């Protein structure tokens, strides 16, 4: 099985029974904030795009690059489609000219021509991508690969049961705006960033240890930031709180832990993976030296990309749009329909829109309890976001239904909040369409009614086996220290004596000391889902 790195989470898989191109991303994403690093625009995409199968893991724009897919990827390719609850991914691909689809069933192996076997696991909670994220398992001639990319499954057991995996691709770096955009003292921001960076690494190592693949390929990040306004987010400043470490940083950390089976997949890297071997050819003479000169490469990349960034910025302004009126027209009907999301937010959210002059501000309130959009008065708010008016105008102009995986991932805003992180704020702004909202409401309804009856013992405590957040298996991801439980899948923490979630509102965990009898209410349903990890 030949693997060719094509940048970020993208790769081409070649076998004797056909080729698969995964997640090709070249053009900047999220308001021209994210660029793939290293630069992959100079690859021979005319050739790379001539494939038998296309796999797009989910609709995040650093995985789904519509412009690139339309221009370079063969429309004869059969799309390996994850089993998602909405048709959005298929609809978008059809609009680009793809018309051959293999609709897979989650966790079911599909036998393709020539002995090629694939399986896609689809994750479908509202917090997984925009209503979905997925992993691709591939087998040919006894060699098995798992492309986990961004996905965070509760465990990898189903893949391990299919046989030993020889190549494991997975995310290790940040893909979020936290904590960089929060209006916090520098020391606090660094401390929170370091916690997140460490947690990312720990989660990646946990997945690697679970699967025990022969070879590990760190992929799906980090992006780079080429706009001068965002340059500080690149991990080149010696900031231990930067959440975007690169592949070499991860490999060094991995090596320090005693592992020696990682391969860095640059654009143009070719790895021939066999049952017992992995022969790799790199496109640069010395990978470590390449990353040592990262800032130099970024500056050259920035110079090449400046016209693209400036052209993007020039397209955002739409002064003809009355933002308040359009938000009322589009969002109020969704607020009116929302039950779980509105209740979960539990208070008003404020948007401060900075005008074209960089000084004037219009403040708009999204009043979740009152189910209305209106000018801000003098109310206390749960969350406050500050961004350029032009960005909101652009979202309204293109009728964007997912403000999280557009505005928020752009990092072109600042944020402040009162209290803990709140999952429903972001879930709502991912679901600005009736189809998405109805799915999310139904998912939370089902999730709230579910009762986790199985208990496990962790240290001196008996706790429910599944994390109240997104059902991670705590036998794999749970760690107990000082009477607190941390679920390493998303970093959620719980006070075991009270069951209270320390990370967010809601999600009480069932727990009692192992040397004490279980309380009479231990079998009751967990508290309603009302919070989210910081990514």
UniProtKB/TrEMBL annotation:
Residue ranges under compositional bias (Low complexity)? 517-535
Which parts of the sequence belong to the Rieske domain? 462-502
* Higher taxonomy: Bacteria, Bacillati, Actinomycetota, Actinomycetes, Micromonosporales
Q: Which UniProt keywords apply?
A: 2Fe-2S, Iron, Iron-sulfur, Metal-binding
What InterPro entries does the record point to? Answer: RibonucZ/Hydroxyglut_hydro (IPR036866), Rieske_2Fe-2S (IPR017941), Rieske_2Fe-2S_sf (IPR036922), SCP2_Rv3818 (IPR057330)
Stretches the record annotates as Disordered: 513-535
- Give the originating organism: Plantactinospora alkalitolerans
Protein name, as recorded: MBL fold metallo-hydrolase
Looking at the keywords, is Iron present? yes
């Amino acid at each position: 099985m030949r693997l060719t790195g094509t940048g970020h989470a993208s790769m081409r898989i070649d076998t004797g029974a056909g080729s698969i191109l995964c997640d090709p991303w070249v053009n900047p994403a999220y308001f021209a904030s994210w660029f793939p690093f290293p630069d992959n625009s100079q690859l021979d995409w005319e050739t790379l795009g001539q494939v038998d199968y296309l796999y797009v893991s989910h609709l995040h724009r650093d995985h789904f690059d519509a412009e690139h897919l339309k221009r370079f990827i063969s429309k004869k390719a059969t799309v390996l489609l994850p089993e998602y609850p909405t048709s959005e991914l298929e609809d978008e691909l059809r609009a680009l000219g793809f018309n051959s689809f293999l609709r897979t069933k989650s966790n079911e192996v599909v036998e393709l021509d020539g002995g090629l076997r694939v399986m896609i696991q689809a994750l479908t909670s509202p917090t997984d991508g925009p209503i979905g994220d997925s992993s691709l398992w591939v087998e040919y001639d006894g060699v098995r690969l798992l492309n986990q990319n961004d996905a965070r499954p509760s465990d990898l057991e189903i893949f391990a049961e299919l046989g030993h995996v020889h190549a494991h691709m997975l995310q290790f770096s940040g893909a979020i705006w936290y904590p960089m955009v929060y209006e916090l003292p520098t020391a606090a921001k660094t401390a929170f960033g370091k916690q997140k960076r460490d947690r990312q690494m720990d989660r990646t190592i946990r997945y690697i240890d679970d699967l025990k693949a022969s070879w590990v390929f760190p992929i799906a990040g980090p992006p780079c930031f080429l706009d001068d306004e965002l340059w500080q987010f690149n991990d080149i400043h010696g900031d231990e709180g930067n959440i975007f470490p690169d592949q070499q940083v991860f490999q060094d950390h991995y090596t320090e832990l005693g592992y020696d089976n990682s391969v860095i997949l640059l654009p143009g890297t070719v790895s021939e993976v066999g049952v017992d071997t992995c022969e790799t050819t790199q496109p640069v003479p010395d990978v470590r030296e390449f990353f040592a000169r990262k800032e130099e490469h970024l500056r050259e990349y920035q110079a090449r990309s400046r016209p693209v960034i400036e052209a993007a910025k020039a397209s955002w302004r739409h002064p003809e749009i009355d933002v308040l009126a359009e938000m009322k027209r589009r969002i109020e009907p969704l607020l009116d329909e929302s039950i779980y999301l509105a209740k979960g937010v539990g208070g008003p959210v404020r948007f401060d829109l900075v005008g074209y002059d960089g000084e004037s501000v219009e403040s708009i309130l999204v009043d979740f309890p009152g189910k209305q959009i209106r000018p801000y008065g003098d109310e206390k708010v749960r969350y406050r976001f500050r961004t350029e008016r032009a960005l909101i105008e652009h979202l309204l102009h293109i009728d964007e239904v997912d403000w999280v995986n557009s505005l928020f991932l752009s990092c072109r805003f600042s944020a402040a909040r009162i209290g803990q992180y709140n999952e429903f704020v972001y879930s709502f702004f991912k679901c600005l369409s009736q189809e998405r909202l109805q799915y999310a409401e139904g998912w939370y309804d089902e999730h709230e009614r579910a009762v986790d009856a199985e208990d496990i013992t962790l240290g001196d405590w008996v706790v429910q086996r599944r994390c109240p957040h997104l059902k991670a298996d705590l036998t794999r991801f749970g760690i107990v220290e000082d009477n607190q439980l941390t679920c390493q899948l998303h970093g959620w923490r719980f006070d075991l004596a009270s069951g209270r979630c320390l990370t967010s509102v809601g999600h009480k965990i069932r727990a009692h000391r192992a040397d004490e009898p279980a309380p009479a209410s231990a079998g009751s349903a967990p508290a309603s889902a009302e919070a989210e990890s910081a990514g």
